[in-house]
Amino acid sequence: MSLFRTIVTLCAMTVLTVVGPAIAAPKPAVGTATTTSDATRISTHLQRNLSTLPWYGIFDNLEFKINGSQVILSGQVTSEHAITKQDAENVAKRIPGVTSVVNHIEVLPPSPFDSQLRRAAYRTIFSQSDLGRYTMGANPPVHIVVKNGHLILEGFVMNQMDKTIAGLAAQSVAGLFSVTNNLRIG
Known about the structure:
Blueprint: H1 2-24, H2 36-51, E1 61-67, E2 70-77, H3 83-93, E3 100-107, H4 112-126, E4 142-147, E5 150-157, H5 160-171, E6 178-181, E7 184-185
Parallel strand pairs: 2-3, 5-6, 5-7
Antiparallel strand pairs: 1-2, 4-5
Helix pairs in contact: 4-5
């Protein structure tokens, strides 16, 4: 019997020597993004979930940055869609691996003048034959943000020509104080 105990003891010691360090090794906290693949996974989930928010539209702009396991939300939403700010934060909090959310989304002040400029910019920009395709789908890739008479184009277009045409069309809208073309190609 003592030979049997000796063999069992040696086997147990061998197992603990080999497996013990792996068991005792510190592990990242549950729900934290520690690798590039975690950040990519969070980014993919967040992008998909933000684009399907019910009140997110062409006159709103949502952006985010990922800093480890922290998500930083930014952008602008119209006062009519103010609930989108809280919805975006709630969506980000529910993504596995996200430990904190910083919400810097700005709710634009209500303004009949800005609303009129948004509609005029929409009609002018998307009546251009090359840009009409960007109005397709529930969430178009081009967003028109107007704050206090200043227009900002955000989002993505397919090529430099579309970016230039959108910027020139926006500049032709009467009543705008300035136009900033932040459209990205991609």
